[in-house]
């Protein structure tokens, strides 16, 4: 368990696939198996010397039920670091991981951290399919072994008018989509969270799950999905994601309200039609498909002109700051919406 992520040595090995390389499926698959064979050997050689208490199976020796395994994050090396939040103060790890929205684990801000610590992400399968030439199936190890992991510090603005500055680890969604090869019918990208009511109690309890129809689904236009800012996160700060932040892999779209940034993704499907999205289905007059951060378009029940920036002290000591159009990322994304009435397409 503790050795599923590669160390820095392995990531710099010559057989590592470069992001810039676009390979046909057969070669890609073939290389994957080679990487796996070599990779597991290398990890085993390094990892075998590190004993792990979590792996000790003493409970089964005594014929007792094993206690549920507690989730553990692991160090995650990265090769590049970019700050997309200027001089703004990065939100402490303790806040990023205890003030969350993840309704599958309950609707309060504390609930996800409290209720998700036994979440199992190994094995995990992420399928990329639909209008693509080369459908992909990635396992947990593939996210970190096949992709170049970089750190990007982004502002994150929830539709509820609070915000954070978060250093994510991951890779651009475009890298994955280019490997899959989007065909000419691909106009949208649909995302789906794991559906597992046994692990995610909010999915089978309407009250706990806030009335959302599960699995949680989200969507982007293909142009939005291909934008360089659109990120698949597999970590926070310098570690793999904890469950409350969407382990093992989640979307991050920094110019849109936080609900677009779907967590614990199992499927990415390229489609020809605009896919349904969870919050839009629940309240179409309050939550649009685009959900671009926009201080000029208020939520029907509150203003979006400003936000509380969560820092050391938490929500109630947070300072109120002005909300920026596209959350401050207009230079990179405003062109995507040229000619679109943003008051109607909210
Ligand atoms: N599957 C799923 N994804 C989700 C949510 C959710 O309830 N379920 N909440 C969204 C909302 S409203 C926000 S603000 C962000 C919060 O991300 P964070 O907890 O990592 O800050 O996750 C988004 N992704
Ligand atoms: Mo949110």
Describe, in plain words, how this protein is organized in 3D.
20% of the residues lie in helices and 20% in strands. It is α+β, with helices and mostly antiparallel strands and 346 residues long. It has one domain: Alpha-Beta Complex (Sulfite Oxidase, Chain A, domain 2). Strands 1, 4, 5, 8, 9, 10, 12 and 13 form an 8-stranded mixed sheet that branches. It has a 5-stranded mixed sheet with strand order 3-2-11-6-7. The relative contact order is 0.15. Residues 1-64 have low confidence and may be disordered. Bound molecules: the ligand Nc1nc2c(c(=O)[nH]1)N[C@H]1C(S)=C(S)[C@@H](COP(=O)(O)O)O[C@H]1N2 and molybdenum atom. Residues 101, 158-160, 258-259 line the site of molybdenum atom.
Features:
346 residues; alpha+beta; Sulfite Oxidase, Chain A, domain 2; 5-stranded mixed sheet; 20% helix; globular; disordered N terminus; binds ligand MTE; binds molybdenum atom
The main β sheet shows up as: 8 strands, mixed
Figure out the total of helices. 10
- What share of the residues lie within helices? 10-25%
- Radius of gyration, rounded? 20 Å
Strand content: 15-25%
Number of domains: 1
CATH superfamily: Oxidoreductase, molybdopterin-binding domain
Q: Shape, please?
A: globular
Write down how many β-strands occur, each being a DSSP E stretch of 2 or more residues: 13
């Amino acid at each position: 368990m503790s050795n599923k992520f590669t160390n820095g040595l392995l990531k710099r090995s010559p057989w590592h696939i470069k992001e810039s390389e676009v390979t046909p499926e057969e070669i890609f698959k073939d290389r994957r198996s080679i990487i796996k064979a070599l990779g597991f050997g290398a990890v085993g050689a390094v990892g075998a010397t590190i004993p792990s208490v979590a792996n000790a199976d003493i409970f089964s020796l005594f014929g007792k039920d094993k206690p549920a395994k507690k989730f553990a994050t692991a160090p995650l090396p990265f090769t590049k670091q970019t700050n997309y939040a200027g001089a703004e103060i990065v939100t402490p790890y303790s806040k990023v991981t205890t003030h969350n929205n993840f309704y599958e684990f309950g609707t309060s801000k504390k609930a996800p951290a409290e209720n998700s610590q036994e979440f199992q992400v190994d094995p995990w399968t992420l399928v990329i399919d639909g209008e693509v030439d080369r459908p992909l199936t990635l396992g947990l190890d593939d996210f970190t072994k096949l992709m170049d992991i970089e750190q990007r510090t982004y502002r994150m603005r929830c539709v509820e008018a609070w915000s954070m500055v978060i250093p994510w680890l991951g890779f651009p969604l475009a890298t994955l989509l280019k490997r899959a090869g989007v065909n000419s019918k691909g106009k949208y990208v649909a995302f789906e969270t794991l559906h597992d009511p046994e692990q995610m109690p909010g999915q089978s309890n309407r009250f706990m799950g806030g009335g959302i129809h599960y699995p949680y689904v989200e969507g982007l236009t293909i142009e939005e999905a291909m934008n360089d800012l659109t990120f698949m996160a597999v970590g926070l700060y310098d570690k793999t994601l904890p469950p409350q932040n969407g382990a093992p892999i989640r979307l991050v779209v920094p110019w849109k309200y936080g609900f677009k940034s779907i967590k614990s993704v199992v499927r990415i499907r390229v489609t020809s039609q605009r896919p349904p999205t969870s919050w839009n289905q629940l309240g179409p007059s309050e939550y649009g498909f685009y959900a671009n951060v926009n201080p000029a378009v208020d939520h029907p029940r509150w203003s979006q002109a400003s936000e509380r920036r969560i820092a050391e002290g938490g929500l109630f000591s947070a300072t109120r700051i002005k909300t920026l159009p596209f959350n401050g990322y207009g230079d990179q994304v405003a062109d995507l919406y040229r000619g679109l009435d943003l008051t109607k397409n909210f």
